[in-house]
Structures are given as structure tokens and as C-alpha cells.
Specification:
Layout lengths: L11 H7 L19 H18 L7 H7 L1 H8 L6 H22 L12 H12 L6 H12 L2 H16 L2 H27 L5 H10 L3 H4 L2 H5 L5 H4 L2 H26 L8 H9 L3 H27 L3 H23 L11
């Protein structure tokens, strides 16, 4: 793969200055949902903070990041049919752990220790915190001690332990495979950052199919208190539907994070990749990215309707996927602590 040397778009500075508070992106396809129950969201946040403090997952200086992320509100919106608060809390633990690993291992942030350099070695150990090492007892003990000595690894380990209590073995194994997909996506993005490679649009979208929200989406049945049988989940059309849901909601993240991420010229998102490849301004690229998202959402909605008619279980799963996608959009659109839109309309 040769390194492309494409010029960056010319209007980054003006876009940064023009950022405005949140709200739904004009022209973006999404399903409107009711606001999260604030009492329920606050209770999930209370449980998550107590869990994080007990495990010493992050220092006091990160408290603003924790509260600003609004983990409780996120999972309440994403899982409206959750069987009980304990299952919502488990979803929140997995979401929190994934963000801790991403921030501490992947992001170029000296305060949190992240770096693209050497990321593969850290992510192998992170995967082992979920998919445990098996070997001689003394070496297993050293591995376990190493996992417990590191905050990100500790967060993964205990979040997965709690998930395995409420999920079936096949649902737990499903999650392990989707986290491995996520780690592969992290590595692809990091490699491009290290080599200053500007991917083509299709290459970027392939990377985002791995580096995306699929691990959160593939637990929807477990959090709702039931199981889509493994033989059904593995069917190609169900896998495609799950991928479409993950891709759509991940591009939602690209679009809502766009203005914030422009502060780091090495951080890729879909509008920037389009602008660099097509040598157009960021506004045109952003609006084209909205169109790509909408095409994916159209395919998800159309195929969901067709598949839902084939089986009550499939209908329930597609509804849960749709709920997660819609709830996650609402969380992005209303989280003004994290996101500001460009002034393109």
C-alpha cells in the first residue's frame, strides 16, 4: 500500500471557530426517541462511579470526563427494553472499560499515556484480560497479577466477569470476537497515523467497520434479557444487518465529533478523508459524509423490515439494534459537553 500525499482541506481554522452547540444534524437520517429517564440514568451513573472507584480505574482528575460522557444516560437511551437496572449497569461497565482502553492505550494523549507506537503489544494484553491466558499455573498467576496491576486491563477483566454472569456462554464468546474486531480497527487506524497515510474513502470505511460500536450492539439481546440463538446470529444476513447498524452509528460519531477532532490534524474522520481525496472544502465533504451515512441507514431500515418478517426472534433482534442506533444518536445530538456542530447550514 503506497503512501498518498494529498493536501489537507483549506478551511479547518474557520470551521473550528464556527462550531455551535449541539442538536440533530440537519439532513441526517435518524429515528427520534424519547429523552432518557433522568432518575434511571443517575442511578446507573452512581453504580458505575462506585464500581470505577472501587477498582481505582482512573484518577480524580478524570472525574469531569466521566460526568461529561454521561454513561448512564447513554445506556438508558441505547437499551430501552433492558430487563433490569443491573443489566444496564453491566452495559455501562463494558462501555466505560472500552473507553478507558481507547483513551489510555490508543489516543495520542500524554496525560493518559496513549500512543500509536507499540499499540499492538498493549492490545494483545488487553484482549487477554477478556479472553484469558491458559498455561502453567505459575505463569497464569503472573499474567493475572499483570492484568490486575493495570487500570485499563482491570476494567476489561471485571466488566467481562460481570457480563458473563448475565449472558450465556455463546453471547460472551460473541462479545470476545467483536472486541477483537475493534482492536484490529484500532491497529489499522494507528498504523495510518504513524505512517501519515491518507486512506482512500473506501479504505477508511473498511477500517471503521472494525473500529466501531459493534461490541455495544452485539450485546443488545443479553441486556434485554434473552438470546438470539448462535445459529441464527451467525447467518450472513444477520451479520450484514449487525454490520450496517454498527457502520451507521459509527459514522454518526464521526459527524458529531468532527469539529472537536479538527483540533488534532492527525486524527481521521470521514469528512476529512473525503476532503483530502476529492480536494474539496470541508463543508462539501461533511455534507457528502451525511449522504453516505444516510445510504447505510436506508439499507439497514429496508433489510430490517424484510428480515423481521421471517421470525419473531429476528424481529426482536432487529428492533433492539434499531433502538440502540436511535438511542445512540440521541445521546450524541444532546451531549453538548462533548460535541459541537460545524456551522454549515
Amino acid at each position: 500500500m503506497s503512501t498518498q500525499s494529498l493536501p489537507g482541506p483549506p478551511d479547518i481554522a474557520s470551521t473550528l471557530r464556527a462550531g455551535r452547540p449541539g442538536g440533530a444534524i440537519p439532513g441526517l437520517r435518524y429515528r427520534k426517541v424519547a429523552p432518557a429517564d433522568p432518575v434511571k440514568a443517575a442511578e446507573i451513573d452512581r453504580r458505575l462511579e462506585a464500581w470505577a472507584r472501587r477498582l481505582e480505574l482512573f484518577p480524580e482528575t478524570w472525574n469531569g470526563d466521566f460526568s461529561g460522557f454521561q454513561f448512564g444516560r447513554a445506556v438508558v437511551l441505547q437499551h430501552p427494553e433492558a430487563a433490569d437496572p443491573e443489566r444496564l449497569t453491566v452495559a455501562g461497565k463494558l462501555l466505560l472499560a472500552e473507553n478507558i482502553v481507547d483513551n489510555c492505550y490508543c489516543e495520542e494523549d500524554e496525560d493518559k499515556g496513549g500512543s500509536r507506537s507499540g499499540l499492538g503489544g498493549r492490545l494483545v494484553l488487553a484482549q487477554s484480560a477478556l479472553d484469558p491466558y491458559h498455561g502453567p499455573p505459575d505463569l497464569q498467576e503472573r499474567w493475572l497479577s499483570g492484568v490486575q496491576a493495570d487500570g485499563p486491563l482491570r476494567s476489561y477483566h471485571w466488566a467481562l466477569k460481570d457480563y458473563a454472569v448475565i449472558a450465556t456462554p455463546s453471547q460472551t464468546d460473541r462479545f470476545l470476537h467483536d472486541i477483537a474486531r475493534l482492536h484490529l480497527g484500532y491497529l489499522g487506524e494507528a498504523a495510518w497515523g504513524e505512517t501519515r497515510y491518507m486512506p482512500r474513502v473506501w479504505e477508511y470505511l473498511v477500517m471503521r467497520q472494525f473500529n466501531n460500536f459493534r461490541p455495544c450492539l452485539s450485546i443488545v439481546d443479553a441486556i434485554d434479557g434473552w438470546e438470539l440463538p448462535e445459529a441464527v446470529y451467525a447467518r450472513p444476513e444477520i451479520q450484514r444487518l449487525t454490520a450496517l447498524a454498527g457502520n451507521a452509528t459509527t459514522l454518526v460519531n464521526d459527524l458529531y465529533s468532527f469539529t472537536k477532532e479538527l483540533a488534532d490534524p492527525t486524527h481521521l474522520n470521514l469528512p476529512q478523508v473525503i476532503a483530502a481525496n476529492e480536494r474539496c472544502g470541508l463543508k462539501a465533504a461533511y455534507l457528502k459524509a451525511v449522504g453516505i451515512h444516510n445510504q447505510i441507514m436506508d439499507a439497514f431500515d429496508e433489510e430490517s423490515a424484510l428480515l423481521s418478517a421471517t421470525s419473531p426472534l429476528v424481529e426482536r433482534y432487529t428492533r433492539s439494534l434499531s433502538d440502540w442506533v436511535a438511542g445512540n444518536h440521541e445521546w450524541h445530538a444532546t451531549n453538548s459537553h462533548r460535541y459541537h456542530l460545524p456551522n454549515y447550514w
